[in-house]
Prior knowledge:
Blueprint: E1 2-10, E2 20-28, H1 46-56, E3 67-77, E4 80-81, E5 99-110, H2 113-126, E6 131-133, H3 135-146, H4 148-152, E7 156-165, E8 168-177, H5 182-192, H6 195-198, H7 203-224, H8 228-233, H9 237-242, H10 256-270, E9 278-285, E10 295-303, E11 310-312, H11 313-316, H12 323-331, H13 335-349, H14 353-356, E12 364-367, H15 369-385, E13 389-391, E14 404-410, H16 421-424, H17 427-430, E15 433-439, E16 442-444, H18 446-453, E17 459-462, E18 465-468, H19 471-486
Amino acid sequence: MKVIHGFWTPTDTQAFIQSGRFSIWVESDETRRVSKKTLHPYHLTEKPCLDFITQELSLTLTTDNASGYRGLQLPTYKGEPLPSPELAVVLPEDDEAVAWLPWEVFCVDLAKPIKDINNIHFLACYQAANTRVASDFLFWYYFSQSLKNILYKDQFIPALLAHEVKKKREFYRYWHIVSPQYESLLHQAVSQMPLACSLGYEPESLLRHFAEVCISDILDYALSRLPATFNDKVRGNLSLVLSSIQLNKPLALMTDALATKYCQWQHKLIGKATDTGLQLGFQLYEAKPSEPEQWLLAFFIGSQQDPSTKYALQDYWPPQSAQKALVKQQFGAHVEQQVLLQLALAAKIYPKLWDGMETSRPDSVCLSLDEAFEFLKESAWVLEDAGYKIVIPAWLTPKGRQRAKLRMRTAGKSPAKNTSATSYLSLDNLIDYQYELAMGEHSVSPEEWQQLVESKTPLVHFRGQWVELDRDKNARNVIALAATTAR
């Protein structure tokens, strides 16, 4: 049995911005003779480890994959390192007799941690024989794969860091993570982090360093391969920031004045409603069946600390509103400024909101049926990922939405009371079935279905609810039903 371990270590240099490396080592259930007392007796030494990584894990090693013996603090009992829980049959009962001592193991660095960790985990679980991943590697697997959402959703911007050197200020570029879920991800990971992963570092600091270095390496690699036409379109301060391909080198042409302007732009781009906890929200009200083009997207004030808090802006704006004093007491005297700022930021994501800001007291915006459908399909969830609260009717959410489908039901009658279970499960009854059209859990007649197919809108009001239609799929279901009926 072989167990794969992994750990992250920041690079020990004097550079202002430090990189890091993710390394793996392999533990075996076979004891090997070692030439040094500090060598781990159960780890795979250089040649067996490299053979295992290249053959069993199919990892192609290049000059970027540094390797060598490194010292790790590992739990030790009676002069020997304790085997991993994945290998140990019996662990010592006397915890006080266990000490953390340094042991040398042969390690291999991963050139692309997020990608390589994912590949190794897959191969160890589904292909490599007699191979498991240790709890420390498994933790890094889940944490690293969670960072992919930040990349998929483009939740990062180029930012600046200032560094004083001999009374001279230098500016470095780094990638600032702006995901609203990033902090909660870190706090959750800290609470679940195995002790073996920290290696003596402060857990939250180590996780932040891993996330920022890995994401920066990926983005710097992508930035270096952008076509020249992209660089021609970028002008001003942004071009100066993006011009530094190497993360550990200062921006040569950046001055204090340009950096101030850039930071102001950055603050406007990612600005939140300060630390008051105010959260802007949007609630979609469905249209009446008689007025299908009259959908309403209302604005409201919510709280990041208390999800149940909700103040509609329509009730807040009137001069004699009873809610105004209560809202200002909870979120501060500059509530209106915060609301308008968050609305403007949200409008950059969903431009339709600008229509609702044509008045000095914005409280809602009207949507057509097609606009409401587009909001439900994409814009609502983009806004939610950006930190805004979204409220829509339950049957219009992805989970609650009713969908048209073709289903199979038994065609036979219910068995009589004196009929045995054996006769009810006879071959004749098992093959006696029929297909029918359905919307959610409700059966639909062929005539009703044809009306749905001929509908020209993506949303229709059907039996008291708005439902989404895929006309092409519905037409295919009708053809499939006709084919099964004709048999």
